[in-house]
Design goal:
Layout (H helix, E strand, L loop, with lengths): L2 H38 L3 H29 L6 H24 L7 H17 L3 H23 L1 H50 L10 H18 L3 E8 L2 H8 L1 H19 L4 E5 L4 E6 L4 H16 L2 E2 L3 E2 L4 E8 L8 H14 L5 E3 L2
Parallel strand pairs: 6-7
Antiparallel strand pairs: 1-3, 1-6, 2-3, 4-5
Bound molecules: guanosine-5'-triphosphate.
Guanosine-5'-triphosphate binds next to strand 1, helix 8 and helix 9.
Pathway: Purine metabolism; 3',5'-cyclic di-GMP biosynthesis
Keywords: GTP-binding, Lyase, Membrane, Nucleotide-binding, Transmembrane, Transmembrane helix
Cofactor: Mg(2+)
């Protein structure tokens, strides 16, 4: 789900919530008004007439704006949303009809408050963007202010403006709260995604050299074999073993040994970087390379580059031109030989060692 979808989803939730909230408030208030009207007030029908006109006006405005917005920009309001909103409007219309009919108080406070509740509802319901809410609320707000000014004078209008500003503030705050929460959720999910990625990455990486570890190799090998099956292209395995590594460790110490492993891994990486390939640490001083789409010429060239590059390398603690590797390679031309390929490369490595080390051999 992208950012806009998440915001849309949140706003939809808010619409349902505000609808439910509005019904509860309306029911409570109407019960109160009904009680007041029938038991305490004598002029109920006259006042009811005045308020019913106001409410009817706002409802017509609300519904028509809803339709205009929907026609102009259908992506803001989907079909289900329209249906739900219409049901809400209908239910509220019925309730308000009852309230208006029975609304007989000459109370200057409660009138605007009721109107504001409707405006708030309209604003939140229509609020897919703050811009939209502004377009939506401005005519309602201004007509309310104008009507109040003409009917009740300046003081009442100022009083109404304060209430409307409050309503506007609530709408604006709720919108920025939604955005803040979504931003936080997105940030959290990005962190989790990164953590999962890191866990996956670390589980497959050799801590010392940064190349794949044995588990990483298994995965790479599986991928290569399935590619080989699908594309019918040969692949090759090269085993690289550091010569007399134990001696390096014993003579120069384990830190020098580590340095040697890191250098060999780096040299191998740079020799194979232009090929579809991967390198993993297979054992203590042994690396294994997978070359996709391999030919014997390509494999020979890579082995040669690795030998040359490692022979020429210089190590901080050991010095220059003092390490070498022996390599054994095998090419898998048909799927039958997949299981044997590592054994073949191992045999070739053994033969190369027998041959005096610092050399390579490719299995026939
Ligand atoms: N410094 C260091 N040494 C390691 C690490 N892992 C394994 N080793 C050492 O690598 C050495 C491997 O020894 P051998 O398998 O006999 O290899 P070798 O001395 O190169 O012998 P050949 O392969 O026949 O040339 C052992 O002494 C291990 O202790 C490591 O991460 N760091």
């Amino acid at each position: 789900m992208n950012y806009d979808d998440a915001i849309g989803e949140e706003r939809r939730k808010m619409i349902s919530l505000s609808g439910a909230w509005f019904i509860v408030v309306t029911l409570t208030l109407s019960a109160f008004v009904l009680f007041y009207a029938y038991f305490l007030d004598d002029n109920k029908y006259i006042t009811a007439n005045i308020y019913s006109k106001n409410f009817a006006f706002i409802y017509v405005l609300f519904i028509s704006t809803l339709w205009v917005v929907r026609t102009l920009n259908p992506s803001y309001l989907d079909k289900n949303w329209m249906r739900n909103a219409s049901i809400l409007i209908f239910i509220n219309g019925m309730i308000w009809g009852g309230v208006v009919f029975c609304y007989i108080m000459e109370n200057r406070l409660l009138g605007p408050v009721f109107l504001c509740l409707i405006v708030l509802f309209c604003g939140v319901v229509s609020g897919y963007t703050l811009k939209l809410i502004t377009v939506y609320c401005l005519p309602i707000f201004s007509s309310l202010l104008l009507a109040t000014f003409l009917k009740n004078g300046l003081l009442q209008t100022m009083y109404m403006s304060i209430i409307l500003s409050g309503v506007w503030f609530i709408i604006k705050t709720s919108d920025s709260l939604i955005k803040k929460r979504i931003n936080k959720e997105i940030a959290t999910s990005l962190i989790l995604e990164k953590k999962a990625y890191n866990a996956h990455h670390y589980a497959q990486t050799d801590y010392l050299t940064g190349v794949f570890n044995r588990r990483g190799f298994e995965n790479e090998f599986k991928k290569t074999v399935s590619n080989c099956l699908i594309q019918q292209k040969p692949f090759a395995i090269i085993l690289v073993d550091i010569d007399f590594f134990k001696k390096i460790n014993d003579t120069f110490g384990h830190i020098a040994g580590d340095d040697c492993l890191i250098t060999v891994a780096d040299k191998i990486k740079s020799c194979i970087k232009f090929y579809a390939s991967s390198v993993s640490r297979y054992g203590g001083d042994e690396f294994i390379i997978i070359i996709n789409d391999a030919t014997s010429a390509k494999v020979e060239m890579i082995c040669h580059d690795i030998k040359k590059s490692i022979n020429e390398s210089s190590l901080k603690l050991i010095g220059e031109r003092c390490i070498s590797v022996t390599q054994g390679a095998a090419i898998c031309n048909n799927i039958k030989s997949v299981n044997d390929i590592i054994n073949d490369a191992d045999k070739a490595l053994y033969e190369a060692k027998e041959n005096g080390r610092n050399c390579y051999r490719i299995a026939e």
